Hints:
heterodimer, A: 151 residues, alpha+beta, 4 strands, 41% helix, B: 427 residues, alpha/beta, Rossmann fold, Ubiquitin-like (UB roll), de novo design (two linked rop proteins), 3 domains, five-stranded mixed beta sheet, four-stranded parallel beta sheet, 9 strands, 45% helix, binds flavin mononucleotide, binds iron/sulfur cluster
Amino acid sequence: MKSEILSRHAPDRSNLLEILHDIQRESGKNFVSDRDMKEISAYIGMPVSQIESTVNFYTMFSRRPRGKFVIRICCSPSCSTGGPDDLLQLVCSELGVRKGGTTKDKLFTVEASSCLGLCDQAPAMMINDQVYGHLTREKIRSLIEDCRRKE
Amino acid sequence: MSGAGLTGLTAQKRIVLVNAGVINPESIASCTAAGGYQALRKALRELKPADVTEEVKKSGLRGRGGAGFPTGLKWSFTAPLDGEKYIVCNADEGEPGTFKDRLIMEGDPHKLVEGMTIAGYAIGAGSGFVYIRGEYGLSIRRMNQAVEDARREGFLGKNIMGSGFDFDICVRSGAGAYVCGEETSLINSLEGGRGYPRIKPPFPGVRGLWGRPTVVNNVETIANVPAIIENGAAWFRSFGTEKSSGTKIFCISGAVANPGSVEAGMGITLRELIYTHSGGMKDGAGFKAALIGGAAGCFVSGDMMDVRMDFEHLAECGAVLGSGAVMVISDRQNIGLVLKKVLEFFRHESCGQCMPCRIGCRMLNVLMDKCLQGKQAKENFGRMMELAEAMKDSSFCALGQSPVMPVKSAHRYFADEIASSEAGRRK
Ligand SMILES: Cc1cc2nc3c(=O)[nH]c(=O)nc-3n(C[C@H](O)[C@H](O)[C@H](O)COP(=O)(O)O)c2cc1C
Ligand code: SF4
Ligand code: FES
């Protein structure tokens, strides 16, 4: 599968971010492995160390396996009050994980994010590529249930 | 003062978003039926590249990415340079409270394709890149489709509309880093590296992507170009104020009844944005403050309700227009907690390349926590102001130079609240 992903892009270092996005999305584990990086390195002719450095820089990329569903919660001012009703707290307590953590069943990873550009629908979050706004405790519960059912 | 009178400012005026929500953004036929690509046709058939730049200069269009740099002037630095050149559209939109570029890309992606092609023609670029933040999945899909459709219809590619002009566009996505909105970081990111800012000068206009002259413009800036070419600079100047011509998309969020966006002439007031266009305050709360321009912006209090929102009038009051974000804060909220969220944002997004910002952003958070806990709040807030000032003087890029604005403006209006930091202790 990986060679299929690579062949979608020209072997040019400027395609690195696109390749990384595709690999994460299609690995099912939302991460970039050491082996991935070696293969990318051979394909685009960029040293592994530099690829590693790029991967480490961006919050959307991970070197460690994450859950099947990565939940990114907006923690910027229009969405987040910092109080106990905070979305991040709600989701974490709902799933029983800490910020940045992955559930034991490897289904969910919860991450804090900067403004997602959905401020008019605050509070907002993303689950993988999907965006959700106007969130409440009930809505979050049903979204989590939906993910579980999909599994 | 030229431009519309105050009554005229109250009304919405759509230039950039004229087709958004009206056409089918996934259909190029729907776009051309609404007049899409007419401006490109006019530019290629009737105008020389230098005329296009001149028209944009005369229109007074200023960059909508935050700094308000005159767009025509920026183009005129790059246009005379030889060899391979690029136009880069900055769609990294990461400023908290801002979602206008998303509305353009989701609602009328062809406007951006057309604007970039005209810009490419003006400066003599053969290719363009749209760098879209990785979280904007729908924008990325729609832009990719728009580019593909435009290519098929002959609006992109070789010999566009028989003019002999060749131009193509490539859509790229970011991966979650606010600093990549800074133009030189963006270029490093496009080249596949970490999004560290580069030293300026040389400016991208002279040495940018792969060392070649590169014009970097914001989405909203470029989306204004087709209308300027089609209707002329004088028409464009009939909207907005003397030094800030045209319209602006304002993004209103927070404690208002109907958060959303408004495209209106530059110079509209905060009062109009909140009470005419956003249904007033939510749940009968009172107005306390607004954070204008995003995290890298300023808090303003109620006595600025009637200041005209444009580059020059806000600057006169020590505030900034920035991206046009307006986060409204009610009298039930604590400014200290909002400021804390802003400072957490900076700590999270500092790229760590230079020391004043890397350490400074951490320290600001430590001090802010102390203020919120009521530990020598007055002294600690004073330290925050000194530190933010020092960061402004010594940070490598504008990210580290920015916290001083929210910190100082918060102090100017809300020193007492922060000092007593009642809400912080109550929590
Ligand atoms: C930390 C930082 C983040 C920025 N983010 C953005 C952004 O998301 N979008 C944008 O257009 N400009 C952003 N800018 C401004 C760009 O560096 C640049 O000035 C702008 O894209 C120029 O376009 P304009 O002249 O059309 O405004 C940012 C600047 C800094 C310092
Ligand atoms: S000021 Fe901050 S964001 Fe800019 S280069 Fe320094 S550490 Fe990076
Ligand atoms: S502040 Fe949460 S999406 Fe913008």
